[in-house]
Amino acid sequence: MSLQLDPDTVAQYLIDSPHFFEEHAELLAKIRLSSPLLGRAVSLQERQMEVLREKIKVQDLRLADMMRNAQENDASSHKLHAWTRSLLLARNDVDLPHTLVDGLRTSFGVPQATLRLWGVAEDYSHTWFAAEASEDAKIFANGLSLPFCGSNNDFEAAAWLEHDVQSVAMLPLRNTSSGAAVSATFGLLVLGSPDPQRFSADMATDFLVQIGETASAALACLLE
After folding, report:
1. What's the whole-model pTM score?
2. Tens digits of per-residue pLDDT, 40-92?
């Protein structure tokens, strides 16, 4: 009677016998494996080469993806630098809001951008950026721990923009220099687009957080 070996037993034997193929090297040339790529049986060496090629292909794709992300991050970093520089070069305080939103449109290709500030100094109380914002809008801004991104569900802040706003990003503006445990929210920066996917709900907000923090620091000089 022939002995039926359990595949697991054979596998464990080969694991426990690392010198088996050294002692039976001729078997390596005789072993045939099925190839999902070629659709036929191939030698062990050929199958190992296929596996290696697939690993290299996956690594190449990952490397290309990493390089693309690095290039995009580098481009965004340059844009942020240029935008921040434009804020530092603003001739006077009242020019800052216009310079800020105009820079977002031109540097970052944002179709529409605007902002509202509350609690501004008396000298700026009649400016466009100090226009009335409802208590609901202020409560909404105060409740944002991160920028909001998503579809325009008839938000009041979206109405501050021009027509045809399908997606929005809303960034709370907070005064971090007050020394309070919780930073006071003093405004809302609103970005809008006719493209429903431009500011999608699942997009990363790290870069928007930096924009919001920079805008907050620049505009704090307009407060009472």
Report:
1. 0.71
2. 666 666 767 777 888 898 898 888 888 888 888 888 889 999 999 999 998 88
What pLDDT, in 10s, does the model give residues 152-177?
999 999 999 988 999 999 999 998 76
What is the SS3 assignment for the chain?
CCCCCCHHHHHHHHHHCCCHHHHCCHHHHHCEEECCCCCCEEEHHHHHHHHHHHHHHHHHHHHHHHHHHHHHHHHHHHHHHHHHHHHHCCCCHHHHHHHHHHHHHHHHCCCEEEEEECCECHHHCCCHHHCCCCHHHHHHHHCCCCCEEEECCCCCHHHHCCCCCCEEEEEEEEECCCCCCCCEEEEEEEEEECCCCCCCCCCCCHHHHHHHHHHHHHHHHHEC
What domains are defined for the chain?
90-222 (3.30.450.40)
